[in-house]
Amino acid sequence: MLSTQTTIQQVIKERRTIRNFTNEPIDIQEMVDLLDVAVYAPNHKTREPWSFMAITSNARTKMYDEIVNSYERQHIFEGYAQETVNKKKEKLYDMMHQCPIHLIVTMDQADERKVWEEDFAATCAMMQNLQLLGWERNIGMVWKTNPYIQDKEFYKAMGIDPTKKIVGVLHIGRPAKIPKAKDRTPVVDKLVIRNAY
Question: Which residues form the Nitroreductase domain (predicted)?
Fold first, then answer.
């Protein structure tokens, strides 16, 4: 049991957000296998509020186009010189085609605020599970919440149920560069212990 705990601790501490990927493909079945484990995240009443859309291969160009369309609708590029806009688009295009899989993670949206918050927390826990499981297999990810995830026209263009909420997009691939760890604030600086009132 101790070795398992040590492994879990190591994976949690060693995992990094990856923004630079190799061109090595990832088999979609491997991602499905990881998701089958990741969904064992805690979730109230086992509602399993999450759903997924995996964007791969030629569909990556479609997603790139719709992200750019969304940014233009939202005036994200306004105020920048055209050369800067072109560079931003080029950088986005390269990233979209460098990553073999872009996983759009959505959740059901309950009317009751308490249930909505529980389901959001559960979906986030599941996404972290996936990142940790991927790290064990030399699969890196970056979790993005860019403005297009709030754009219902983007949902429509990508075939995503507009009644759902995109919690985030995981850009997934083999790490080309692993960044150094950033120090964390000691927990004692954020911990309050009450023995009595």
Answer: 12-174
Q: CB of 52 within 8 A of CB of 35?
A: yes
- 143 annotated to bind ligand: yes
Q: Is 16 annotated as a binding residue?
A: yes
Q: CA-CA distance, 97 to 57, in Å (whole number)?
A: 8
Q: In what order do the strands lie in the sheet with 165-173?
A: 50-56, 101-107, 165-173, 140-144
Domains in the chain with CATH codes? 15-177 (3.40.109.10)
Q: What's the pLDDT tens digit per position in 97-120?
A: 999 999 999 999 999 999 999 999
**5-15 pLDDT tens trace:** 668 999 999 99
Is 84 marked as binding a ligand? no
> What is the rounded average pLDDT of the residues 51-55?
99
Determine the Cα–Cα distance for residues 6 and 53; give it in Å rounded to an integer: 33
Q: Would the annotation count 144 as a binding residue?
A: yes
